[in-house]
Amino acid sequence: MSGHNKWSTIKRKKGALDAKRSKIFSKIIKEITIAVREGGIDPDGNPRLRLGIANAKGASMPKETIQRAISKGADKDAAALTETTYEGKGAHGIAIYVECMTDNTQRTVSNIRSYFSKHGGELGKNGTLNYLFERKGIFVVPKGDLNQDDFEMEVIDAGAEDIEVDDEVFTITTAMEDFGNMMKKLEELGIEPESASLQRIPKSTETLDIESARKILKLIDLIEEDDDVQQVFHTLTLTDELMDD
Q: Which end of the chain has fewer beta carbons closer than 10 Å to its terminal beta carbon, N or C?
Protein backbone atom coordinates (compact mmCIF):
# COMPACT_ATOMS: atom_id res chain seq x y z
CA MET A 1 0.00 0.00 0.00
CA SER A 2 1.19 3.50 -0.66
CA GLY A 3 -0.22 6.83 0.35
CA HIS A 4 -0.07 10.09 2.16
CA ASN A 5 1.79 9.34 5.38
CA LYS A 6 5.36 9.74 4.12
CA TRP A 7 5.34 12.98 6.12
CA SER A 8 4.67 11.06 9.29
CA THR A 9 7.37 8.48 8.56
CA ILE A 10 9.98 11.18 7.94
CA LYS A 11 8.86 13.05 11.04
CA ARG A 12 9.34 9.88 13.08
CA LYS A 13 12.88 9.37 11.77
CA LYS A 14 13.78 12.97 12.48
CA GLY A 15 12.34 12.69 15.97
CA ALA A 16 14.35 9.56 16.67
CA LEU A 17 17.53 11.48 15.85
CA ASP A 18 16.72 14.75 17.58
CA ALA A 19 14.63 14.06 20.66
CA LYS A 20 16.21 13.60 24.04
CA ARG A 21 14.87 10.70 26.08
CA SER A 22 13.98 13.01 28.99
CA LYS A 23 11.78 15.09 26.69
CA ILE A 24 10.03 12.00 25.35
CA PHE A 25 9.44 10.73 28.89
CA SER A 26 8.08 14.13 29.97
CA LYS A 27 5.50 14.09 27.17
CA ILE A 28 4.38 10.56 27.96
CA ILE A 29 4.14 11.27 31.70
CA LYS A 30 1.86 14.22 31.00
CA GLU A 31 -0.30 12.08 28.73
CA ILE A 32 -0.61 9.38 31.40
CA THR A 33 -1.39 12.02 34.03
CA ILE A 34 -4.23 13.48 31.96
CA ALA A 35 -5.52 9.99 31.11
CA VAL A 36 -5.73 9.00 34.79
CA ARG A 37 -7.39 12.27 35.72
CA GLU A 38 -10.06 11.77 33.08
CA GLY A 39 -10.62 8.00 33.23
CA GLY A 40 -9.15 6.54 36.41
CA ILE A 41 -6.18 4.33 37.21
CA ASP A 42 -7.43 1.05 35.69
CA PRO A 43 -5.98 0.60 32.17
CA ASP A 44 -8.60 -2.02 31.31
CA GLY A 45 -11.36 0.54 31.63
CA ASN A 46 -9.36 3.53 30.42
CA PRO A 47 -8.31 3.31 26.73
CA ARG A 48 -6.35 6.55 26.88
CA LEU A 49 -4.31 5.31 29.83
CA ARG A 50 -3.77 1.98 28.09
CA LEU A 51 -2.40 3.88 25.09
CA GLY A 52 -0.16 6.01 27.30
CA ILE A 53 1.29 2.93 28.97
CA ALA A 54 1.86 1.29 25.57
CA ASN A 55 3.76 4.37 24.38
CA ALA A 56 5.76 4.40 27.61
CA LYS A 57 6.80 0.78 27.07
CA GLY A 58 7.60 1.55 23.43
CA ALA A 59 9.94 4.29 24.64
CA SER A 60 11.58 1.90 27.14
CA MET A 61 10.30 3.87 30.12
CA PRO A 62 11.02 2.06 33.41
CA LYS A 63 8.02 0.47 35.14
CA GLU A 64 8.62 2.57 38.25
CA THR A 65 8.40 5.76 36.19
CA ILE A 66 5.14 4.61 34.61
CA GLN A 67 3.68 3.85 38.04
CA ARG A 68 4.75 7.25 39.38
CA ALA A 69 3.01 8.91 36.43
CA ILE A 70 -0.18 6.98 37.19
CA SER A 71 0.02 7.97 40.86
CA LYS A 72 0.61 11.57 39.87
CA GLY A 73 -2.52 11.52 37.74
CA ALA A 74 -4.56 10.44 40.75
CA ASP A 75 -3.16 13.33 42.82
CA LYS A 76 -5.13 16.55 43.15
CA ASP A 77 -2.28 18.50 41.54
CA ALA A 78 -3.07 16.79 38.23
CA ALA A 79 -6.10 19.06 37.90
CA ALA A 80 -3.72 21.91 37.09
CA LEU A 81 -2.79 20.38 33.72
CA THR A 82 -4.76 21.70 30.73
CA GLU A 83 -4.79 20.53 27.12
CA THR A 84 -4.62 23.37 24.63
CA THR A 85 -3.77 23.94 20.97
CA TYR A 86 -2.31 26.83 18.99
CA GLU A 87 -2.32 27.54 15.27
CA GLY A 88 -0.03 29.86 13.38
CA LYS A 89 1.90 30.44 10.20
CA GLY A 90 5.63 30.49 9.74
CA ALA A 91 7.42 32.37 7.00
CA HIS A 92 6.15 31.74 3.46
CA GLY A 93 2.72 30.78 4.80
CA ILE A 94 3.68 27.39 6.23
CA ALA A 95 0.89 26.29 8.59
CA ILE A 96 1.96 25.07 12.03
CA TYR A 97 -0.38 23.36 14.50
CA VAL A 98 0.80 22.95 18.12
CA GLU A 99 -0.67 20.63 20.78
CA CYS A 100 0.23 21.40 24.39
CA MET A 101 -0.31 20.26 27.95
CA THR A 102 0.36 22.98 30.49
CA ASP A 103 -0.23 24.08 34.06
CA ASN A 104 0.01 27.74 33.03
CA THR A 105 -1.70 28.73 29.78
CA GLN A 106 -0.53 32.33 30.01
CA ARG A 107 3.08 31.21 30.04
CA THR A 108 2.52 28.77 27.22
CA VAL A 109 0.74 31.14 24.83
CA SER A 110 3.34 33.83 25.55
CA ASN A 111 6.16 31.45 24.70
CA ILE A 112 4.51 30.10 21.56
CA ARG A 113 3.70 33.60 20.32
CA SER A 114 7.30 34.71 20.87
CA TYR A 115 8.67 31.75 18.90
CA PHE A 116 6.51 32.67 15.91
CA SER A 117 7.24 36.39 16.03
CA LYS A 118 11.01 35.96 16.37
CA HIS A 119 11.15 33.69 13.32
CA GLY A 120 9.06 35.62 10.83
CA GLY A 121 5.74 33.97 11.65
CA GLU A 122 2.53 34.87 13.41
CA LEU A 123 0.29 33.09 15.91
CA GLY A 124 -3.30 33.03 14.68
CA LYS A 125 -6.75 32.29 16.05
CA ASN A 126 -7.67 28.71 16.85
CA GLY A 127 -9.76 27.11 14.13
CA THR A 128 -8.28 29.06 11.24
CA LEU A 129 -5.89 26.31 10.09
CA ASN A 130 -7.55 23.14 11.33
CA TYR A 131 -9.08 22.45 7.92
CA LEU A 132 -5.59 21.97 6.44
CA PHE A 133 -5.05 18.76 8.44
CA GLU A 134 -6.73 15.37 8.82
CA ARG A 135 -6.79 13.46 12.10
CA LYS A 136 -5.25 10.06 11.52
CA GLY A 137 -4.10 7.23 13.72
CA ILE A 138 -0.38 6.52 13.29
CA PHE A 139 1.09 3.28 14.64
CA VAL A 140 4.78 2.44 14.51
CA VAL A 141 5.33 -1.30 14.98
CA PRO A 142 8.74 -3.00 15.20
CA LYS A 143 9.15 -5.58 12.44
CA GLY A 144 10.91 -8.12 14.62
CA ASP A 145 10.07 -11.62 13.41
CA LEU A 146 6.65 -10.67 12.02
CA ASN A 147 5.66 -12.20 8.70
CA GLN A 148 5.00 -9.15 6.55
CA ASP A 149 2.21 -10.60 4.42
CA ASP A 150 0.31 -12.10 7.35
CA PHE A 151 0.73 -8.99 9.46
CA GLU A 152 -0.48 -6.69 6.70
CA MET A 153 -3.60 -8.80 6.17
CA GLU A 154 -4.41 -8.63 9.87
CA VAL A 155 -4.07 -4.85 10.13
CA ILE A 156 -5.93 -4.22 6.87
CA ASP A 157 -8.87 -6.11 8.39
CA ALA A 158 -8.61 -3.79 11.41
CA GLY A 159 -8.87 -0.66 9.26
CA ALA A 160 -5.36 0.14 8.03
CA GLU A 161 -5.54 2.72 5.25
CA ASP A 162 -1.82 2.73 4.55
CA ILE A 163 1.18 0.61 5.53
CA GLU A 164 4.75 1.75 4.97
CA VAL A 165 7.67 -0.58 5.58
CA ASP A 166 11.32 0.17 6.17
CA ASP A 167 14.17 -1.95 7.53
CA GLU A 168 13.01 -1.71 11.14
CA VAL A 169 9.31 -0.85 11.42
CA PHE A 170 5.85 -0.88 9.93
CA THR A 171 4.15 2.53 9.95
CA ILE A 172 0.39 2.10 9.84
CA THR A 173 -2.15 4.83 9.12
CA THR A 174 -5.82 4.53 10.07
CA ALA A 175 -8.84 6.80 9.98
CA MET A 176 -9.41 8.46 13.36
CA GLU A 177 -12.53 6.35 13.96
CA ASP A 178 -10.52 3.14 13.44
CA PHE A 179 -7.84 4.06 15.98
CA GLY A 180 -9.42 1.96 18.75
CA ASN A 181 -9.94 -1.01 16.42
CA MET A 182 -6.27 -1.01 15.52
CA MET A 183 -5.22 -0.83 19.16
CA LYS A 184 -7.43 -3.85 19.91
CA LYS A 185 -6.04 -5.78 16.94
CA LEU A 186 -2.44 -5.21 18.02
CA GLU A 187 -3.34 -6.28 21.57
CA GLU A 188 -4.95 -9.45 20.19
CA LEU A 189 -1.78 -10.18 18.23
CA GLY A 190 0.34 -9.60 21.34
CA ILE A 191 2.17 -6.71 19.68
CA GLU A 192 3.28 -3.60 21.55
CA PRO A 193 3.69 -0.68 19.14
CA GLU A 194 6.75 1.49 19.41
CA SER A 195 4.31 4.39 19.39
CA ALA A 196 0.62 4.99 18.72
CA SER A 197 -1.00 8.39 18.45
CA LEU A 198 -3.60 10.51 16.76
CA GLN A 199 -1.77 12.92 14.49
CA ARG A 200 -2.76 15.80 12.26
CA ILE A 201 -1.58 14.88 8.79
CA PRO A 202 -1.46 17.76 6.27
CA LYS A 203 -3.82 17.37 3.31
CA SER A 204 -1.10 18.94 1.17
CA THR A 205 2.40 20.27 1.76
CA GLU A 206 4.43 23.15 0.39
CA THR A 207 7.97 22.84 -0.95
CA LEU A 208 10.37 25.71 -0.25
CA ASP A 209 13.93 26.36 -1.30
CA ILE A 210 16.42 24.72 1.03
CA GLU A 211 17.41 27.85 2.97
CA SER A 212 13.80 28.93 3.55
CA ALA A 213 12.88 25.41 4.62
CA ARG A 214 15.77 25.28 7.09
CA LYS A 215 14.51 28.47 8.72
CA ILE A 216 11.05 26.95 9.11
CA LEU A 217 12.55 23.82 10.67
CA LYS A 218 14.44 25.98 13.17
CA LEU A 219 11.12 27.46 14.27
CA ILE A 220 9.50 24.01 14.48
CA ASP A 221 12.44 22.61 16.46
CA LEU A 222 12.27 25.57 18.87
CA ILE A 223 8.55 25.02 19.46
CA GLU A 224 9.07 21.27 19.99
CA GLU A 225 11.72 21.96 22.63
CA ASP A 226 9.23 23.83 24.83
CA ASP A 227 8.35 21.73 27.88
CA ASP A 228 4.63 22.43 27.44
CA VAL A 229 4.52 21.19 23.84
CA GLN A 230 3.37 17.64 23.12
CA GLN A 231 3.24 17.54 19.30
CA VAL A 232 3.83 19.90 16.38
CA PHE A 233 2.35 19.43 12.90
CA HIS A 234 3.05 21.48 9.79
CA THR A 235 2.60 21.76 6.02
CA LEU A 236 6.27 21.96 5.05
CA THR A 237 7.47 19.30 2.60
CA LEU A 238 10.40 17.49 4.22
CA THR A 239 12.62 16.69 1.26
CA ASP A 240 15.47 14.18 1.42
CA GLU A 241 17.95 17.04 1.09
CA LEU A 242 16.40 18.82 4.04
CA MET A 243 16.38 15.71 6.23
CA ASP A 244 20.02 14.91 5.40
CA ASP A 245 21.22 18.20 6.92
A: C
